[in-house]
Fold these 2 entries.
Entry 1:
Amino acid sequence: MKTIDVVAALIEREGKLLLARRDASSDQAGLWEFPGGKVEAGESQPDALVRELHEEMNITAQVAGFVATSELRQPERLIRLHGWRVSGFTGTISLQCHSEFCWVAPEKVRSYELAPADIPLIDAYLRAYQ
């Protein structure tokens, strides 16, 4: 089974976290997620996160620390999603592959229809930072 490593950003601002909705052309379209993407060969997870957030949202992130890893098994692959706190960013969010975004109090994130692999990340974040 193929394993794919993916990074996700738990972007913090004024006590809230950023959620982004996957657009209609995406796998799991319409679900909310912590933005990020695949880790390329030879790339560290924080470097991949900075690159992906620049590509997907046109921002430059300051990665603060590791939160947790979750796994999602699909018939043909295993996706390992590595969540990282992002304590700040520069630039103005410009969505490239999401239909919308919002800022949500951490304790309210689970009230959104989250992509399944993101659920353990918010649970770990709440245990560690709330």
Entry 2:
Amino acid sequence: MAEAYIVGAVRTPVGTRKSALAAVHPADLGAHVLKESVQRTGVDPAAVEDVIMGCVSQVGPQSLDLARTAWLSAGLPETTAGVTIDRQCGSSQQAVHFAAQGVMSGTQDLVMAAGVENMGMVPMGASVQYALDNGLDIYGSGWVDRYGTQEISQFRGAQLMCEKWGFTREDLERYALESHRRAAEAVAEGRFDTETAPLAGVERDEGARPDTSMEKMAGLKPLREGWAITAAVASQISVGAGAVLIASERAVEEHGLTPLARIVQLSLVGDDPVYMLTAPIPATRAALKKAGLSIGDIDVTEINEAFAPVPLAWARELGADLDTTNPNGGAIALGHPLGATGAVLMTKLVHELHRTGGRYGLQTMCEGGGQANVTIIERV
């Protein structure tokens, strides 16, 4: 099987829903990172065979095949195709998988994997609003036959995880506080500066709150009476985009590209859709087994902090070291622009491996429907 290499990884800063980035059209957000990727790698854009872009709420300004419109909005060659995909929160991590698989199969040499989400312009859940407005069912009769009419939501899933693993509200808030501390430190030290491409006057990630405290978080109301979940232990609603250029060994040589990392393993696993957020656990086990690695071999992990119980349960079940998990903070502090997060996390992971000299990196995240992607890479 042919090798696939990451030769470029760039992202916008992640902005809040009230950020100046929220006024930028999603196609222009995507265009920005696509153009930056081409310029930073020096690749001939006409040699890029496809743009695979993750986006969750594909309505309004995020509709009409955003991958294609973003590429064209960047002024890049019309000969490059584009496709937009939705695997919920893992959409652009799946874009990386599809791009790498195209290269590893030998059918493609250069593929751009990307992700975009402007949650300030297109609200979360916008893609199901039509059904709600018109009294239509979200799920069909087959789903109801199998799972009944119980609530299916990420919020309930997070609470169910707390109950299953025995996490208290204090456990979650302590984890969230550390995420903010790490993120604030990373932003202040400029650790993300080489991987980000400023836009609309936004130069650095906006979500970290260095002044937060256990006392402030304790004052928030739970999402429901008796729950441990509050807004403080959930990912932030955000705006952002990221792009990861995947190349074959032949393309590396022909275009004089510099590999940053080698794709080691691509895995995908489904789990209980009611719990929804637990799939990173079995998916990581599967990926490590196929790669012939142990969790102790992983130098840096990026696991999406959709809610604090997700990384906490994952670390407990895998025996993972939380010191090397989200070392620069996660989505609780830095935000979660849905379809962009996979590309954003991969960009962070690649650059952190180079910053620290680590060998192996692992990325995973929970996804709607009870799914999880896992990507293992090796620094080159």
